[in-house]
Amino acid sequence: xxxxxxxxxxxxxxxxxxxxxxxxxxxxxxxxPIELVRIATRTPSRAHGRAPVGCQIGxxxxxxxxxxxxxxxxxxxxxxxxxxxxxxxxxxxxxxxxTANKALLARDGAQIMACAARAGRRVLFExxxxxxxxxxxxxxxxxxxxxxxSVVGILNGTSNYVLSQMSEHGADxxxxxxxxxxxxxxxxxxxxxxxxxxxxxxxxxxxxLAFGVPxxxxxxxxxxISDIEREDIEFAKRLGHQVKxxxxxxxxxxxxxxxxxxxxxxxxxxxAMVGSSMNGIALQxxxxxxxxxxxxxxxxxxxxxxxxxxxxxLANGSESNSATGAYNMGFRDAAxxxxxxxxxxESMDAFYIRLRLDDRAGTLAEVxxxxxxxxxxxxxxxxxxxxxxxxDLVVITHPVSEERLRxxxxxxxxxxxxxHSVVVLPVLEDCGC
Length: 433
Ligand SMILES: NC(=O)c1ccc[n+]([C@@H]2O[C@H](COP(=O)([O-])OP(=O)(O)OC[C@H]3O[C@@H](n4cnc5c(N)ncnc54)[C@H](OP(=O)(O)O)[C@@H]3O)[C@@H](O)[C@H]2O)c1
What we know:
There is one protein chain. The protein has a six-stranded parallel beta sheet, with helices on both faces. Helix 4 (80-92) packs parallel to helix 5 (102-119). It has three domains: 2-134 and 302-329, Rossmann fold (3-Layer(aba) Sandwich); 135-295 and 338-343, Dihydrodipicolinate Reductase, domain 2, CATH 3.30.360.10; 348-427, ACT domain (Alpha-Beta Plaits). The protein is of the alpha/beta class. It has helices at residues 10-21, 23-29, 61-66, 80-92, 102-119, 135-142, 157-169, 173-182, 191-194, 197-211, 230-238, 300-315, 339-343, 363-373, 402-416; strands at 2-6, 35-40, 56-58, 72-75, 96-99, 123-124, 148-154, 221-222, 241-252, 255-266, 278-285, 289-296, 348-358, 378-385, 390-397, 400-401, 422-427. The chain starts with a strand and ends in a 6-residue tail after the last strand. Strand 14 (378-385) and strand 15 form a beta hairpin. The structure holds NADP nicotinamide-adenine-dinucleotide phosphate.
């Protein structure tokens, strides 16, 4: 099986290095020999001296994709428009594709899988989500017979590192982010990590696999961690919770809720124990019950493990697992669906509310009256002096519809007084783990 690699960055370089280091073991497990014969990247000089002997190194990705000797193209450019063009072209030319490009699959997965189905070729992407955790194979194979109720995860290592630093060392957001960059956990431009979009790409792929429908990424709501204040992390801890960037996809009524947002996670949940830059995923299915998977979410070597596993899967033929095209992403009918938009069911969640109030007689009574009138009751409550004449009132509510809470917010702001902030974060309900 002849293989070409597009890009020669962190993941591609590590994939080649890992392949060479474990070649004996990999080839012993493969039904046919695997040869890395061609690399195309923008800066070919990077690959010189690091590629297998005889491997052709060039700078024309289209020529690589068109090369008739190749059976498999591994796309590791990270570029969405270029990646789309090259992946579609490779499939049309009868090549199988391996990619770690979650942004590409989240946005264009349905089109790519439809193309793969027409061509009778496979698109494998274990390296696109939580690299050390075999979540794609788990959903596609091990959990395939289940009706999945929910997939809830910490899917972005950078955000988790920042929140963990804030929680464990009292760091503020920018200091924690600078430390993540210094340690190489965050990109030079960490926007997609911090604003929740990277985790949204990943939960889009997991939702598609879990629920067997193409998911329209434009319908997936996401919010990042840049507004999280140290006070809220401290209050959450005092109330027995950790603040985590939670990505979730769950069935609610007849629809799906899919999104990413900072969320209070109870200390008893295994997700609360996922620290540093690690990832964790809790899965609930009608047959398997609950499962929890934990591991690294990034790193060249870690991603190479997933990419090479996909390569071995292809080398061992499709007889044992004959899924091609659309089914690789969990659905057979590649027609676009608006399962999320259609459903948009009103789920009932508990919420953390912090109100910064004037510390004067009557304010607390007014807030209590607003909450009681809206039918919102408190599960836990604490009050603490803030700066000057202000006080923080923190409430964790019993489950309430988000819409009802949203309608009540203007009255709460009014009760809090002019210029006094109101912070609202959801609280994770039981995810089985
Ligand atoms: N890094 C991780 O931990 C990780 C984990 C999971 C998934 N992934 C995914 O894996 C993919 C690769 O990530 P990476 O970290 O290896 O990225 P990277 O280090 O930025 O490497 C990208 C490579 O693609 C090349 N490239 C980019 N645009 C190109 C173009 N227009 N034409 C030709 N070559 C081009 C780059 O060339 P230059 O060398 O000239 O820049 C570079 O060699 C991404 O989709 C990423 O999301 C990464």
